[in-house]
Design goal:
mainly alpha; elongated; binds iron/sulfur cluster
């Protein structure tokens, strides 16, 4: 998304307007100064984006739900933990993991006594 000031936020529109003590405003640059293609081309080099990509890698390496979830929402990770490279959050536990648990229980059918 592009904020009114021209800041490009490539993921997690909820991040727009927030700031991180370590990374500052989570944008990848000002679209009025650089083109969209140029900003996206070097997005992975922006420290907070690199940290978010590490978060996806960490999820892929540690979570059985990665194929369904694909590593979660960087905004939720940031707002819950203050970091982008974490894995499990309350959000993913309640919206992904418990959802899948319920689906599997439903598919398995009622327990027989
Ligand atoms: S469910 Fe949570 S821990 Fe698992 S991949 Fe998604 S965000 Fe990561």
């Amino acid at each position: 998304m592009v904020m009114w000031i021209g800041a490009l936020v490539p993921t997690g529109p909820e991040l727009a307007g927030s700031t991180s003590p370590r990374h500052g405003a989570p944008s990848i640059g000002d679209i009025t100064e650089s083109g969209l293609a140029e900003l996206m081309e070097r997005a992975a080099e922006v420290p907070w984006v690199a940290e978010a990509l590490d978060g996806f890698t960490n999820c892929r390496a540690t979570c059985d739900h990665f194929a369904f979830c694909l590593g979660g929402n960087p905004a939720n990770k940031f707002f819950e933990t203050g970091r982008f490279d974490t894995t499990e959050t309350t959000h993913c536990r309640t919206s992904k993991k418990l959802l899948m648990k319920g689906v599997f229980q439903h598919v398995a059918g009622p327990r027989k006594r």
